[in-house]
Amino acid sequence: MTDTSGAEPIVELTNAAFAYEGVVALDHVSMQVFPGEAVALIGPNGSGKSTLLRGLLGLLPLADGSVKVFGHQRRPGVAEGIGYLPQQESTEPNFPISLRQVVMMGRYRRIGFWRFPRAIDRLAVKEALEMTGLSARANARFGALSGGQQQRGLLARALAAKPRLLLLDEPFNGLDQPNRAALLSTLRELKMRGVAIVVTTHDLDLAREVCDKVLLLAGTQIAFGPTSTVLTLDNLQAAFGDVQVELDEHRVVIPGHDH
Questions:
Q1: φ/ψ bin of 66: left (φ > 0), alpha (ψ from -120 to 50), beta (otherwise)
Q2: pLDDT tens digits for range 2-58
Q3: Collapsing DSSP states into helix, strand and coil, what is residue 206?
Q4: What gap in Å lies between CA 25 and CA 46, rounded to an integer?
Q5: 40 by DSSP, 3-state: which?
Q6: Which of 24, 110, 230, 252 has a beta carbon 3.0–4.6 Å from 204's, enabling a disulfide?
Q7: What band does 259 get if pLDDT is binned at 50, 70 and 90?
């Protein structure tokens, strides 16, 4: 468990609710995320996990409650200091762009339009590639990389901006074991550097491996707190309804659920 004593929260939600075109999609959410802490958002499909990420990004209106990021009320628009990895992002496989160039896109907000990258930008890209274990593939065409390597490359793009808060939407979907292990290693390193992480996932073992806390959702908040106390049989059944849930001393499994 990350020591957060004396730290100010990076994210603070108090009875927050978010809506699409006036229709509330997620409500009654209260949580805090501190520097160096990872929080897993877990729940069935349509439970509000991606909604919450969009709310933190300022892409959805706040229907009730409050949302603070970096100590300030959240306003529309992607804020400086937030990195975001969406669930799916398609790239034309034959498009002539290198991995290094994709990662450099994460610096565009700092570089500005029609300006060339500076030494500090090139260094940020180099460090992001190193952190994701992709330095050796920096000059490879992005479309020629494996799906797992592309996913890590997109994470490197987010990291190039040097975020204090990283939002990840199902980053482990479809990853083979080597890419999964590499991504886990990256997340642990980010936590050590004080980055706050909020990650949506259906992989409950993953939550136990790398996340300090879990927010369990089903259109509303079911439970929030330390991973070991939230991932219980009763809480999971409350969130997943009639889907069979099994619990043993090694792992939590939700048979039949689309991971």
A1: beta
A2: 666 678 999 999 999 999 888 899 999 999 999 999 999 999 989 999 999 999 998
A3: helix
A4: 9
A5: strand
A6: 252
A7: very low
> Do residues 88 and 77 make contact, with C-beta atoms less than 8 angstroms apart?
no
- Alpha-carbon torsion (66, 70, 72, 74), positive or negative: negative
Task: Answer whether 28's CB lies under 8 Å from 5's CB.
Answer: no
Contact 38, 187 (CB under 8 A): yes
Are residues 55 and 18 in contact, defined by beta-carbon separation less than 8 angstroms? yes
**Amino acid letter at 111?**
I
HEC per residue, 60-111: CCEEEEEEEECCEECCCCCCCCEEEECCCCCCCCCCCCEHHHHHHHHHHHHH
Residue keyed to tokens 């999971």: 236
pLDDT of 195 strictly over 90: yes
CA distances, 250 to each of 39, 50, 82, 183, 228 (Å): 20, 28, 34, 22, 12
b/e 6-24 (16+ beta carbons within 10 angstroms → b): eeebbbbbeebbbbeeeeb
Given a cut of 50, whether residue 214 has pLDDT beyond it is: yes
Q: Which residue has the higher pLDDT, 78 or 241?
A: 241
pLDDT single digits (tens) 127-160: 999 999 999 999 999 999 998 899 999 999 999 9
Q: Average pLDDT of 228-257?
A: 71
CA–centroid distance for 75 within its chain: 19
